[in-house]
Specification:
Length: 292
């Protein structure tokens, strides 16, 4: 998609991290942005930041795991701007869970799937009919993760939700191609390194309906500093970080190129992807990926 000036974007998970930087970056190009998030206070601040930078923005509190809430977001966007061209199903949570799948509660899996998979699905169900009906160039995106392509040996709730999302978006892309639609799909993989955001404190947003108290406690890591301390302990060194504004820049450039996989990669990750598919083709036991 060329020349984004004057188009309308809706971004979920826009109160923080990748979503907020996307809102700021697109607003700089003259895109009118709708910021959605479950956290009212942070959302209000993010909207104020975009406006202060000269952008056109409004906020709408939305729990993406609830279809009715996402329908409400769609209605609010249409009421405010009349149209919508770019949808970023970006809200996500790090998921919880124990060291193994069998020590992880069903709630941990349901929370990760509800936000990371059903959230984007709700975005597609609510917004796609509008995009198609409009008959204009448009883009439907979802934010997955490298952890949905090659899986770390822990955090299966997160990885499986992000892997399921890749399947959903790839099939969406096929279907849009088959329909000859002006709507395109894309999938975001924040990186190339761990992105310095508030994802490590995702447990701040666990909804009341999940009973497992360990979800609300988090996994003992609450921010990037504690994550780096854990890395020093586990692998003997800290890992490089990507700033969310750098990833947002990459997303902007990728939209102009019509990329489907918005996937900044370093050599180690490329090798892990190759290894995974080789294991599959050779029918081997899957090798534990070297991702750090
Ligand atoms: N940070 C990374 O290294 C990294 C890597 C790969 C993928 N991702 C993905 O990037 C996306 C953005 O995450 P981030 O890293 O910017 O983290 P973040 O925590 O800074 O931002 C995520 C936002 O989503 C919001 N959110 C959480 N649950 C929600 C819900 N039910 N409804 C609406 N909003 C909700 C949070 O309030 C927060 O503002 C996520 O999908 C995440 O899984 C992040």
């Amino acid at each position: 998609m060329q020349n984004l000036n004057g188009r309308v974007a809706v971004i979920t998970g826009a109160a923080s991290g990748v979503g907020k930087q996307l809102a700021l970056r697109l607003a700089r190009e003259g895109v009118k942005v709708a910021l959605a998030d479950i956290e009212q206070g942070a959302l209000d601040e993010a909207v104020a930041e975009v406006r202060k930078a000269g952008g056109t923005a409004f906020g709408h509190v939305t729990d993406v795991s609830q279809r009715a809430a996402v329908d409400g977001l769609r209605d609010a966007v249409l009421a405010e701007y009349g149209k919508v061209h770019l949808v970023f199903n970006n809200a996500g949570v790090g998921g919880g869970g124990g060291p193994t799948i069998w020590e992880t509660s069903e709630d941990a899996f349901r929370w990760a799937m509800d936000v990371n998979y059903f959230g984007p699905l709700n975005g597609i169900l609510s917004f796609m009919p509008v995009l198609i009906e409009q008959g204009e160039e448009a883009l439907m995106t979802s934010t997955s993760s490298g952890a949905g392509i090659v899986f770390p040996p822990s955090g299966a709730a997160y990885s499986s939700s992000k892997a399921a999302l890749i399947a959903l978006m790839e099939v969406l892309a096929y279907q849009l191609q088959m329909a000859g639609s002006k709507v395109k799909a894309a999938i975001l993989f924040p990186g190339p390194h761990v992105v310095d955001t508030r994802l490590f404190s995702s447990h701040r947003n666990v909804q009341e309906r999940y009973g497992d108290p360990s979800l609300r406690a988090g996994g003992g890591i609450n921010n990037v500093d504690e994550f780096q301390a854990a890395m020093r302990h586990l692998i003997g060194h800290e890992v490089p970080l990507t700033q969310p504004e750098d990833f947002a820049e990459e997303v902007y450039a990728s939209i102009l190129r019509d990329d489907f996989y918005i996937l900044p990669l370093e050599e180690r990750t490329k090798n892990a992807i190759r290894k995974r598919y080789e294991d599959m083709l050779e029918r081997r036991q899957p090798a534990i990926p070297d991702m750090m």
